[in-house]
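hey all, quick one before standup. I had two proteins in the batch that finished overnight and I want to keep them in one place so we stop losing track of which output belongs to which input. First protein below, input sequence then structure tokens straight from the run.
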Amino acid sequence: MAIVSTIRRFFRNRSPKFNSLAARLILAATLWLSLGLAVGAYVLSSAFTSAMRDNFDTQLQVDLDGLIAAAEPGAAGAVSLQERFLNRRFARVYSGLYWQIDPVAKGAPTLISHSLFDWTIAFAPKYNAGGQSWGYADGPDGQTLRVLARKVTLDAVPKPRVYTFLVAGDLAGIDVAVANFNGILIRSFIVLGIGLILAILVQVRIGLLPLGRVREALARIRSGAARRLEGDFPAEIAPLASELNSLIEHSAEVVGRARTHVANLAHFFKTPLSVLASEADAAPGPLADAVKRQVDTMRRQVDHYLIRARSAGALDVLGNSTDVSAVLDALARALARIHQDRHLDIAVDCPADLAFRGERQDFEEMAGNLMDNACKWAKTSVHVAAVSQEGRLVLFVEDDGPGLSPGDRERVRTRGERLDESVPGSGLGLSIVRDIAKLYNGEIVLSDSRLGGLGARLTLPAVG
């Protein structure tokens, strides 16, 4: 029972899917094993049956030789037997071993063993071998007899006489022995087959464990807990792990180059736009005002789409993980220096082990926009909190500023409209946060804060 319980625990929730590699290996091995055991059982059973029949025929041959040796011619065609040469089973009625002596000449009596009692064997030979005839006949009490017969000439007076000496044995004993052997053989092979199938299951499971470790390592990379496949893999899987690591490194390199190109593109656009803005400032007028408005719009759109392009490229890199606490603390220190003349109280509450499953720059962009917006509108304090809820990272940013009405919140969140031109900024902060969060299957929700101003709740994927 202990062994069965161990096996059940080992395979609990591990049953292979039909289309899996483990299922194919187990199914193929089971089919070949079943076929091999069936063929082996048939061969062994046939060999045992053949050996039993050969031994039976050999014993009949011995009994026939003894019968012939014991026979002596008597008067008037009679035959007398010396009992010391005969098997004692011939003397027991229906014992399963019988003899019969048939004279070839007509008129002479047929002699039978005491074991036949009142039965006479009607023998029709099936084949001849070595001067003897072999065949089958019906015996007393419904028995099936194996018969061996030989013609023998005895020197009788006044002339030699020819007799057919016949010995027959009941085949029931062979049938019982073969049936017993087959029963033992089948039970033994069933136990052996079950044991071998369990061994195959264990072997396949143990053999495929490295693939499970590869799957777990890839899951760790996707969750951001690791940057590459780590572990000691067998020689057959080590090249796969090496190629996957190379692919991950190549992906990171490609994304890095793409970011460099994005940065170069940003610098390329910003310089001409700055020149246009400067020229417009130098020559005021209606045309200059129109140029400045268009330049401002172009700057906002360039910043907006460049940030989206950079974030989308970062999603292709596996294993990204960002320490939330470190980023929030750094942003709080930077914003405190920027707004030091206002003496804002910026409080950060975040667990040390909380991590964002994504690129650090993207999280800095989202958290920085929310915290900077809160600092711009706050009167005295800003509160930032990050928690893990059901495998997701939830960031709360609250201020004690004037807040926004529900309609204004939606306009700012979705369209990035500026509601107050007196506060510096492009007005795209919350829109950028929304777009980057959407790339990570996250969302941002604006509401009233507990401090009296605006509250922002940002939901993002977390590591682990």
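OK second protein, same deal, sequence then tokens:
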Amino acid sequence: MLTYQDCVALCDLTEAEIRAIAEHEHLPYIVAAELGSYLVHSAEGTPMIRRMILDDLNIARERGDKRREAELKLTLLHFIETHPTNRPA
């Protein structure tokens, strides 16, 4: 049986990136890990993950949640650095 940690290790995303997908899509973390794994391995999906993180960041900014905003900025930075095809044009 696979654990959540096993799924995280297999999906090429960090827990913070999975958390952002879960937050954006209103999904349990394990389902977000599965979705994220599918998206990160497709050319069309990786920009979608970037957009999800940006959307979450903007929502945190709008509600004045500085801590979550900072977390998401770091998550976005890491995602762009580790998935270079996600760099904006």
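Flagging for whoever picks this up: The CA atoms of residues 61 and 75 lie 15 Å apart. DSSP finds five helices and no strands in the chain.
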